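Preliminary data (for renewal application), adenosine-5'-diphosphate complex.
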Amino acid sequence: MDDKLYNRTIEFLSEQFKNDSSGHDLDHTLRVSRMAVTIAENEHADVSRCELAALMHDVDDYKLSPDTEAEHRNARSFMNRENIPDEEIEAVIHIIEQVSFSGTDTQVPDTLEGKIVQDADRLDAIGAIGIARAFAYGGAHGRKLYDPKEIPENHLSKAEYRNHVSTTVNHFHEKLFLLKNMMNTETAKQIAIHRDEFMHAWLDEFLLEWDGRNQFR
Ligand code: ADP
Ligand code: NI
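Predicted structure:
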């Protein structure tokens, strides 16, 4: 993507995300687009299509913009204004329709570029950044960090996943630890293995501290 288009895209995204409290911030989108570019280069995919789709992937998210979700109106009108060819717009919309994780109803994208953007979005939910995002989300929703009495609930459908309330540590079992095995590309699998190990090590440490068992190491 050339510098001018990139700069106008950032301007558009800053406007879209300025009032957001759902965790769909500009920084997440920028991280996903950088990661999508990295994976696309490694997988010999269409790099600029992955980048554009990643940049557009959250602007019509149901939490951020429920009125435009179905038609992807925000993404479409921006790309139209920028004179992106119709074919490219349709390819980008096709990718973002397949990206989001919603419990067990989630789908495997049918294009390499879709798989890559989905991987990049999921990678941003795990590892050090993933931990930070989970607790930021938990704090914003008044959730407890952890509660040993609460048992994680797996295999939720889309509706159940959206309405489910639990502690942030449970979110690791219900979503974050599942993501490693849901990566589509080899490149993302490699990155996910490291991030997943890091999250497990972090949670082990957290639980030791919770029980007061690692005070004198
Ligand atoms: P996406 O970026 O794929 O649309 P979500 O909107 O599902 O992701 O979630 C945004 C961020 O908030 C992610 O990092 C996710 O792990 C985190 N998150 C979502 N639901 C919860 C939850 N119940 N507890 C803690 N973190 C959550
Ligand atoms: Ni996202």
